[in-house]
Amino acid sequence: MYKNKEKEVVMMAHLSFDSSALKKFVHDNELGEMQAMVNAADSQLRNGTGAGADFRDWLHLPSEYDQEEFARIKAAAKKIQADSDFLVTIGIGGSYLGARMAIDFLHNSFYQAQTPEARKAPFVVFAGNSLSSSYLQDLITLIGDHDFSINVISKSGTTTEPSIAFRVFHELLVKKYGEEAANQRIYATTDRARGALKTEADANGWETFVIPDGVGGRYSVLTAVGLLPIAASGADIDQLMAGAAEAEKAYVDPDLSKNEAYQYAAYRNILYRKGYTTELLENYEPNMAMFAEWWKQLAGESEGKDQKGIYPSSANFTTDLHSLGQYIQEGLRNLMETVVKLDTPNHDLDVPGAANDLDGLGYLEGKSIDWVNTQAYKAVVAAHNAGGVPVMTVHIDEENEYTLGYMIYFFEVAMGISGYLNGINPFNQPGVEAYKTNMFGLLGKPGFEEVGDQLRAEMDD
Ligand SMILES: O=P(O)(O)OC[C@H]1O[C@](O)(CO)[C@@H](O)[C@@H]1O
């Protein structure tokens, strides 16, 4: 494995935030001048004096997680591993993205195509995150006669997409195993006491796990929402929580010279006020593409409200340098970039030699491919910087559970601070109801008839 001394230092830090490429965009005095505002945001977040204070329980999840529930999650994961080839994980938004990104991040890039023996765990598949009938049928076909279990995840228990998918897979499960045995294969992650799913689970004896009241969907990956599917996939959730717990300690001091998560929040705010209104989260590892999708919900639902907020987008490098790269270099100058850069890959290879040198790559013969990747990253930072795009970098040492837990907490705490810095409630999401109301109207849901009539009339116009 390729390592150097500099990387060893980074490894000890697990994660480090690098703002050195911002010099052209942010003066030296500006960060310090944010300190008073950051102190106020910190107080809102830590003391519950800000809007949305009831949804801050994610802050102490890593250190205070219910140990009885944690043990049950691990036991359920073991049972699923023993009796299932597939775990159908049903949920959407915060009830989906965390588990999905973590499983991609923590496993072989071709996890999905591995044999069960190589994977040493069931194939965790996802449903209920779209309304595509083809997707559902393709998944049914993939599962075929294999053994499977279901983890249905919904705080409300009435979200349309997962509810439909759950009906489909529940029916399939009962058909395959009979009602009683099917009930032993359903794991419901939902509200502690209320809601449709909790009621149904209790009535049927399904094992249930809790989405705590004070944790919103996008902050729930370190609850059973993420932990059960992640554990079932064979990943080490003890290490995931240990990394997050370390970050919980690391990002507690509001002093901007010490707290890198707060620095990130402050720099985003400084840049946003200068007109950099879109942020691209970028990676140089294909298995981090879903991490950006998780981050987009975290940032978008937390900050995009009251007609303001940074628009969260993403790009996957180096592939998107050959598509979005043109726009980033020369398009509308409202972009900022945050790169998640992996410093030590799980595997490294050398560029092979070739008898002839027709592709002109001879000069790279014997060089590590990760070294090439890192030079590409450095080259892109310099090019985008010159082109007028501020770039920040979050360096992570390795792709493992510990680092992922650490990074999850880094971004969560940064978004909380960032939201308060922008004068909004970072923990609600009132805007997501608008499409639901219209959809319910068009679908004819009882109580929404008037909306439906009005929409149909407008559409006929
Ligand atoms: O867990 P539920 O209630 O099904 O909600 C799923 C997702 O829907 C939202 O409420 C809004 O779309 C998200 O915040 C949440 O993560």
Automatic annotation (TrEMBL):
<dbReference type="Pfam" id="PF00342">
    <property type="entry name" value="PGI"/>
</dbReference>
<keyword id="KW-0963">Cytoplasm</keyword>
<comment type="pathway">
    <text>Carbohydrate biosynthesis; gluconeogenesis.</text>
</comment>
<dbReference type="InterPro" id="IPR046348">
    <property type="entry name" value="SIS_dom_sf"/>
</dbReference>
<dbReference type="InterPro" id="IPR001672">
    <property type="entry name" value="G6P_Isomerase"/>
</dbReference>
<dbReference type="GO" id="GO:0097367">
    <property type="term" value="F:carbohydrate derivative binding"/>
</dbReference>
<comment type="similarity">
    <text>Belongs to the GPI family.</text>
</comment>
<dbReference type="GO" id="GO:0051156">
    <property type="term" value="P:glucose 6-phosphate metabolic process"/>
</dbReference>
<keyword id="KW-0413">Isomerase</keyword>
<dbReference type="GO" id="GO:0005829">
    <property type="term" value="C:cytosol"/>
</dbReference>
<dbReference type="GO" id="GO:0004347">
    <property type="term" value="F:glucose-6-phosphate isomerase activity"/>
</dbReference>
<feature type="active site">
    <location>
        <position position="436"/>
    </location>
</feature>
<dbReference type="InterPro" id="IPR035476">
    <property type="entry name" value="SIS_PGI_1"/>
</dbReference>
<feature type="active site" description="Proton donor">
    <location>
        <position position="301"/>
    </location>
</feature>
<dbReference type="GO" id="GO:0006094">
    <property type="term" value="P:gluconeogenesis"/>
</dbReference>
<keyword id="KW-0312">Gluconeogenesis</keyword>
<dbReference type="GO" id="GO:0048029">
    <property type="term" value="F:monosaccharide binding"/>
</dbReference>
<comment type="function">
    <text>Catalyzes the reversible isomerization of glucose-6-phosphate to fructose-6-phosphate.</text>
</comment>
<protein>
    <recommendedName>
        <fullName>Glucose-6-phosphate isomerase</fullName>
        <ecNumber>5.3.1.9</ecNumber>
    </recommendedName>
</protein>
<keyword id="KW-0324">Glycolysis</keyword>
<dbReference type="InterPro" id="IPR035482">
    <property type="entry name" value="SIS_PGI_2"/>
</dbReference>
<dbReference type="GO" id="GO:0006096">
    <property type="term" value="P:glycolytic process"/>
</dbReference>
<comment type="pathway">
    <text>Carbohydrate degradation; glycolysis; D-glyceraldehyde 3-phosphate and glycerone phosphate from D-glucose: step 2/4.</text>
</comment>
<dbReference type="InterPro" id="IPR018189">
    <property type="entry name" value="Phosphoglucose_isomerase_CS"/>
</dbReference>
